[in-house]
Amino acid sequence: MTPTFPDITISTDRLVLRPFEEGDVPALADMMNDELVIAWTSVPQPYTVHHAREWATRAAPAERTEGRGIVFAVTEFLTQRLVGSVHLRNTNWRCRSAEVGYVTAPWARGEGYASEGLRAVAQWLFQHQGFERLELRTAADNTASQQVAQKTGCISEGVLRNAWIARTRTEDGGWADIRTDLIVWSLLPEDLDDLAEESAAGGGRGAYADWN
């Protein structure tokens, strides 16, 4: 039998991370058409409502049921508005490791939502799923994503040269592919423990609460 992650919801101080639903489709399409998302990811462009519905209702659930990973829709606790997504993928069940990717809606950036959601997923993965490594890859010029990695406690391990295709705006308003390096980051259980101790020493409040 193929191992799979449980179908769960994770709650933090400000967020609810849950499976995608049909009702998320319009907000998902808007989010994935943002210029920064297009530039740093491989999503189709333009990203249509059809793409969003296919992801929310079929492809994302299949990531979990087929054992490849799990996809969380990240929503505000108070408003239930979609603020982003966290995606565990390339899961190695024998090594108990996975790769993570995340996207944040343009209106929600600068609020710390990406790092809060990522920490919550990492804590759940390490403490309740017995995983030992979480890997993250960021494009060399994607400083915002690198800041999220650092705030979460990730350690930079090195550079994969010329390993990714990003996109850049052309003079006519279109998009052109460009090759770029990838920075490899990792997060281990002890890294997250160290971050929690630093936060407690500084009087910080825990970002993650519970899951069910």
Automatic annotation (TrEMBL):
Residues 15-171 form the N-acetyltransferase domain. PROSITE patterns: GNAT (PS51186). It holds the Pfam family Acetyltransf_3. PANTHER family: ACETYLTRANSFERASE, RIBOSOMAL-PROTEIN-SERINE ACETYLTRANSFERASE. This is GNAT family N-acetyltransferase.
